[in-house]
From TrEMBL:
The keyword Transferase applies. It comes from the Bacteria. PANTHER family: GLYCOSYLTRANSFERASE WBBK-RELATED. It comes from Acinetobacter tianfuensis. This is Glycosyltransferase. One of its GO terms (molecular function) is glycosyltransferase activity. Keywords: Transferase.
Amino acid sequence: MDVLFIGKRFYTNRDAYNEKFGRIYQIPHYISQKKTTHLWLIDYHTRNINRSSDQQLEITTTPVFSLMFLYMIFKMIFKRPKLIIASGDCYIGLLSLILSKITRSKFIFDVYDKYDTFSGYRNLFGINLYQLLLKKSDMCLFPSLKLLNDTKDICKKTFFVPNGIDENLFHPKDKSLARQTFNLKNGDLYIGYFGSMEIERGIDDLIQATKLVRKIGIDLKILIGGTKRLDLNLDDAFIHYLGNIPFNTVSTAMSCCDLLALPYRKSSLMDHGSSCKIAEYLALQIPIVSTNSTNFSSNFNLSKNDISILSECSDPDSFAQAILHQLKNPHYFIAKDDRTWISINRQLYTMLFKEE
C-alpha cells in the first residue's frame, strides 16, 4: 500500500464518511487517483462498522473501542504503507506515529485545528503530546497560517493546505429559487449563520446585534443551520432555525441569505483555526459581515479596505454597525487564490511525492 490516511469520522458536526466532507475525505480521495490509498475513519460516536470504496479509494470506518479497531491496526502493519497521514486529533496522531515507526513509513501530521485546545485533550504521562507529534512528524500540514507560523520552528517541514470547497456545490445561485427550497419568502431580509454554535463562535453576539438592527426599524431575520448547543435560545420569532441540514443542501441554504455572518470571538481555538465555511461563503459571492478574527483575516490575505469594515470581536454594537454598512454599501470579499479541492490537492500531491 502507498498511503494510509487515518482520520476522525465525525468532525465539525459533519460525517466525513456519508457526506464525503472536508479535508479528511477530499485529500485521500485525490491521492487515491494516483496512489493505492486506504482511508481509515475512527468513529468516537457510534458502533457502526463500514467498508466501501469510492473509485480507487478504499474506506473503512471502525468504532474506537472494538475488535475491528484492533484488527485494522494489525492489518495496516501487514500492509506496510509507505506514507501515513493523520488528521483529527492528537490521539489519532499518536496511533499514526506508532504505526509509522513499526512499518518504517513516513508520518504526516495534518493539524487542522490547535488540537491541544480541544476539550478532550490530555497530556500522557506528563508528556505534551501535541508538541511531541509536531516534532516527530516528517511534515505538518496546516489550514491556518497563524497556526503554521506559531509552530513552524517545532516541525521539520510545514506546508499550507487550506480548507477547500467543492465547486459543484459552492457557486453563486439564484436566491429566489434557493428560498423556494426552504419555503422562505422572497421579500424577507436574512443574515445567515451556518456551522457550530459554541460560545466562542459568536452566535450570541449575532443574535444581540440583529436585535439592535431591528430596533431601528429594519426587519432583519437570521437564518441558522447547524447543531445547536443545549443552552442556546433560538426561540425568537425573527430566528429561522433549519437544524443541522445535510451538507449537500448547505450551499442552497446559504444562498437564501442577503448577508452571511462570521461573528467569531477571540480565543486560542478560533484565532488559530481556519473554518471550512469561510471559503464556502466567499464562493457564493454574498456580502459577509465578520469580526476582525484572525480565523478570517490571516488566512485570506485581506486588504486594508477589507479589514476596515470588520467589526470588533465580542461587541454586538460594533457587529450591528457592520451589518448596517453591508446593507447600505455591500462589499464583496474575494479569495485571492484558488480554494477548490482540486487545486489544493494538486499542490499537496506535488509536495508529498516530489522526490519520485
